[in-house]
Amino acid sequence: MQLRISRSQRLIAAITIASAFFLVEISIGFYTHSLALVADAFHYLNDLVGFIVAFVAHRLSTRNDSPQALSFGWQRAQVLGAFFNGSLLFALGISIMLQSIERFITLHQHHHDHHHDHSHEPVVESEPPREISFKGQRLTSASQHPDHRHLTSETKSFHGGHDMGMMGVLLHVLGDAANNLGVMIAALVIWLTRYEGRYYADPATSLGIAVMILLSSLPLVQQSGLILLESAPKGVNITDVKHDLEKVPGVLAVHELHIWRLNQNKVLASVHVAILDHSASCFSRLAKVIQECFHAYGIHSITIQPEIVSVGPIQGEMKELEMKDNYPEICQLGCRMVCKELTCCG
Most buried residue, 16, 30, 209, 345, by CB count within 10 Å? Predict the structure, then answer.
């Protein structure tokens, strides 16, 4: 029998492990006065916050009940959680980068003073690396954090198979592995080589991981931010949709066309359609044709607002085509001037 572990159970396991590491390391770190352990404990706290945010967002997104004020329910909870995690990671990457640069400057000044004073005693040389190793471990262990979203074409598509929240958690873990590997490489370089600048390996590793965090978190912030800004999905050109709708027989003009993403998978649209009064009787048929046009673009939740234009008897198809070419794109059901600025396009 195959064991199936739900998404919530996986997140709870990650939270439990991160909490255990945090409590053990913070306790031992304070007891032994180890800066490295305390720093690494706060890294796990950082991871823990990301895991909890992902867990809460996932639980909210699966709830059927929601406050009356949330007419779309909790469908954007995971997108909001991904944006929070991405922003947190981006800020962390900037912080680690600045501290790595500071370490480079400190090392450079130390070596400059060291050569200037001609003091090459082993005891003096071994002191700064100890401090740098501790600080560097703080940098690199903090940088184990990447929600490190290497967003691929899968997540860029609004029909992507992976949700942002779980990919963020996965990249947290992969970031931890990459960071630990970087720390070991830096330690081996410092331990096994006798090159004078070998101690630069520690801040260089931190800088490299900081760049990785920035490059992986920025797409996450960008993609989730664009959804929260209600942008149209990639691959859907609003101008093309408008032109296709205007070609539908019986449609005189199209305006107030809005297309936006509710979450990673769902796209919504609303449109005002001006139709001639003689087409009003068969609007249901016309609406189905418009709906099929939206379906071709992967949009399956549409609100159509008809605007009936009375022009009297129409003399043939050519007369209707002339009206299409000359019809002004003015909303027939628009608000008065007093409230125009309060409309979505005002």
Answer: 209
